[in-house]
Task: structure prediction
Amino acid sequence: MRQLLGSLCIFSFLLAAQEAKPKSALDKLAFEAYVRHLLLLTPEVKVTISEPKPSEVPGFKEVMVRGEVGPAREEWLFYVSADGQKIVQGTVYDIAKNPFQKDLERLKTTGSPSIGTPGAPVVMVIFSDFQCGYCKQEAQSIRGELLKTFPTQVRAYFKDMPLDQIHPWARPAAVAGRCVFRQKPALFWDYHDYVFEKQGEITEQNLASKLAEFIQSKGLDAVQFEACQKSPAAGGEIERSIQEARELGVKSTPTVFLNGRKIPGYVPWENLKQIIQFELNYQATAKNAGEKCCVAPSPSLLSPQPNPVLPK
Result:
């Protein structure tokens, strides 16, 4: 009996010691349970916790949390203290650097359709979806007003981010846009305007006939266009654009980057004009963005056509 009581005491002591041991965010199971509660991640969301890696914050490690449901994916960056007891979610800035430096380094504009002046002090990168209604509103306001208001001060680039889960014809329309750009770069913006103008008429079933209508009206080579659509090259460009958007934390369309400043959602022209003017005033002295802001991908990823400067 004494031996049994002694064993029970030891077991109770070990159990109490285990319960007293503090939880650690460096324990993936504990961290997952914590962030599921924090971020309202229901059981159907697959959660992946990255391995901790060194961060620029002294005493903290960087941990990336990814949530996935089917094709939808979102990521959150956390900083975990070395002892695993403190968690910080937020953005770290270095006062000696441009506050948008990280995103500026991720943006790639080479090989993307553009309008505006090379060397402009403000660069706008637009992630868009041809089937998105708000994208249509923003596209039409930018095309109608940008170069009239800022004829030489802004260069705008178009990037594709089709939302496949809700827009079934957005990706094939994006691929078609790349094929127009590959065959005749100067016609991309005509295509851009055409698809957004016809957005309400286009369906998944009639997209091919609408594209054929555009190809014929512009005198493009239909055989070459069809071959481009079937080849992996144009589709690969769209996929790289989507991956770039994910790395930049783009969660919806349209999303604009203005000298690296992320502006999600549709912004009426008057508001966007004010932001552009603010950036122009700042760049008059700072000169730390503009055309020098964005890096080019490796040569193997580039479209063979030049990047045109097109008037409206």
Observations:
- The longest strand covers residues 60-69.
- Residues 23-89 form one domain.
- The chain has two domains: 23-89, 101-301.
